[in-house]
Write a structure and sequence with these properties.
By secondary structure, this protein is of the alpha/beta class. It is built from 25 helices and 14 strands. It has a 6-stranded mixed sheet, sandwiched between helices. The longest helix is centred in the middle third of the chain and has 27 residues.
């Protein structure tokens, strides 16, 4: 059976078993559903997006307290005097989402610019602060809490039974997993996956990584708020205890233990942690002869064991062992109708596409590039060469927006680009590869190349979640497949990129850059790791691109490759230009001889 059939089988079994379960089992499943909803958000935020958060319990609290306040506060009752009581919980949901969204946006603006352990510590700080805020506001009942919350009502029928309310909880959870799966299986999903593996690469493909991180942060917060809203109307009582920092850490445990990069891993992790916690609370006091939160110690040991033995969580281990019962996912076929992708008009042959004038880069007292001039014209291959340490990579980063020059100007198609991010270069038509290959290793070649066409699509998150972006997605995948075939890798279109040899991974990067339909292509050591026949194929491809009017700038150490391909060559030594001309002129230049071979004149070379 396919993954989809297994999912439907699980849903069918759950639906059939639901009326037969004991009240205690229903209660446990209700809590598992609520925890899973928060863990799904953490899978998106931490497992996929690479943003660690310990404070999700605070967002659960915001959703819970918003609906509890609107259902019980005299102030709210006076303001909403004309509103039917059955509508109050739904207004509480709206208020909870608004309050959570605003607070999450403020906290994200402060926290997300941080990186590494500073980001995690930031989430700890505001998670702890919000917990104590809940307990110290008299209007929210302090640490005693708020009782008498109205039950949720649908069509006038109040859901006071945990068994009936559990259907709502699991329906919301399953719809959320469906929406998140659709989001990840889209143009925007590829952008989200690129956040974890490297923001530099994502920005160079045109992804606004800061905006994507904020949206991801808000998404996880809103899912947590919905869980809090459901929790309050299930319990009809709320106090700060379920929203403490300890619970926030448990949510992260659930995501990591289950499988931080897998949506169904969130459900597995929530199930394991909830059942284990329930059992340990019974066993440990009996074994130790005293009461206390000893399960936290077990959770800590469990986390260490999981990180050592199964860093990706338990879900990948289960799916790996269950492959014999699950049919592999069939390659995605082209949609019957496809959107028309935007196409860029290339500049006329001979026009300067990229120009760098007097570009200088200083690192304290070190001058990496000193007043470098370089231009690349449409319909030519321009090579940038030089010995190791000549400053080629530094210069390459400055003319692609990864870094800013200390002084000098960089123009792309006549527009000044200094100070602009690399996504602005991509938007104007720059495609590039990297000296050290940067791919989404666990994703297929098709998905990696489709990321390069990110700016040629326009559908957003909501369209992806509801699958109204399928025509555009089909067009993006068709374009990616076209470039893969053009680069000679069609046999590997559905192969994970990390399983390819280094040379073929470099070709995948070139195909990814071409998917964006660039006006200029920047290649950083594209021939490294290629065999002789592969280099010849690359020369033919670049020659074809030149004939089509594309501007190409190549940084390369393979002199035979460069001299057989380039129209012009610029040579750097110690950050300065020492030669510029045709391959023949550069090879005959005494300063180039000296830079590469360490001799002072051509007679020494001849000797």
């Amino acid at each position: 059976m396919t993954h989809r059939l297994w999912t439907w089988l699980f849903i069918a079994l759950l639906a059939l078993a639901w009326p037969l379960l004991s009240p205690f089992s229903v209660t446990l499943l209700n809590y598992i559903g609520l925890y899973s909803l928060v863990a799904v958000g953490l899978v998106m935020l931490t497992g996929v997006g690479g943003i660690t958060s310990f404070g999700q319990a605070a967002f659960v609290g915001l959703g819970a307290y918003a609906t509890a306040w609107i259902c019980t506060s005299p102030v709210a009752a006076q303001a909403l005097a004309g509103i039917h009581g059955d509508l109050l919980p739904w207004l509480g949901l709206v208020l909870g989402l608004i309050v959570t969204g605003v607070i999450a946006w403020i906290l994200g603006a402060v926290t997300l610019p941080l990186s590494g352990h500073f980001l995690a510590l930031g989430t700890l700080a505001w998670g702890l602060s919000l917990y104590y805020l809940f307990g110290n506001i008299e209007g929210l009942g302090g640490f005693t809490g708020i009782a008498g919350v109205r039950p949720l009502a649908i069509a006038g029928y109040e859901l006071t039974s945990p068994r009936l309310f559990g259907i709502i909880i699991w329906a919301v959870l399953l719809l959320s997993i469906w929406a998140m799966h659709n989001l990840l299986d889209s143009r925007e999903g590829r952008a989200i996956r690129a956040l974890k593996s490297g923001r530099v690469m994502a920005e160079s493909m045109g992804v606004d990584t800061s905006r994507q991180r904020m949206k991801l942060f808000l998404l996880a917060a809103l899912l947590a708020a919905i869980s809090g809203w459901l929790y309050t109307h299930l319990q009809r009582f709320v106090n700060p205890t379920p929203f403490s920092l300890e619970i926030g850490i448990e949510y992260l445990f659930m995501a990591v233990v289950g499988g931080s990069g897998h949506l169904w891993g969130a459900v597995l992790g929530a199930t394991l942690i909830t059942l284990l916690k329930e059992q340990l609370q019974d066993w440990l006091p009996t074994l130790l002869g005293t009461s206390g939160n000893f399960e936290i110690i077990v959770f800590g040991l469990l986390m260490v064991l999981i990180l050592q033995r199964a860093a990706d969580g338990i879900w990948p281990l289960i799916t790996a062992r269950a492959q014999r019962w699950v049919k592999p996912v069939a390659p995605r076929t082209a949609h019957t109708t496809q959107a028309v992708l935007a196409r860029r008009k290339l500049p006329p042959v001979g026009q300067v596409v990229l120009s760098a004038t007097q570009v200088t880069k200083r690192f304290a007292g070190l001058v990496a590039n000193d007043a470098v001039d370089l231009d690349v014209k449409a319909g030519e291959v321009h090579a940038l060469i030089g010995p190791n340490g000549a400053g080629k990579s530094t210069f390459f980063n400055m003319i692609s927006g990864v870094d800013d020059p200390t002084s000098g100007t960089v123009t792309l198609l006549g527009q000044a680009m200094v100070g602009k991010p690399s996504r602005a270069f991509a938007a104007l038509g720059m495609g590039r590869t990297f000296q050290h290959v940067r791919l989404l290793g666990q994703r297929t070649v098709l998905e990696n190349v489709a990321l390069g066409a990110h700016l040629r699509g326009h559908r957003g998150w909501l369209s992806a979640m509801l699958q109204t972006d399928r025509r555009e997605e089909a067009a993006l995948l068709a374009e990616a497949r076209k470039q893969i075939e053009r680069c000679g890798l069609i046999d590997y279109v559905d192969t994970p990129a990390a399983s390819l040899p280094l040379g073929q991974q470099r070709i995948v990067e070139i195909a990814r850059a071409l998917a964006g339909q660039p006006s200029i292509l920047l290649l950083d050591e594209p021939a490294a790791g290629l065999r002789h026949l592969e280099k010849q194929a690359l020369v033919r491809l670049l020659s074809q691109l030149r004939a089509e009017g594309l501007a190409v700038l190549v940084v390369e150490h393979d002199m035979e490759f460069v001299m057989n391909l380039a129209d012009r060559v610029t040579v750097l030594e110690f950050g300065r230009v020492i030669a510029l001309g045709s391959p023949a002129q550069v090879q005959a230049n005494p300063r180039v001889m000296e830079a590469y071979l360490g001799v002072e004149d051509t007679e020494g070379v001849a000797a």
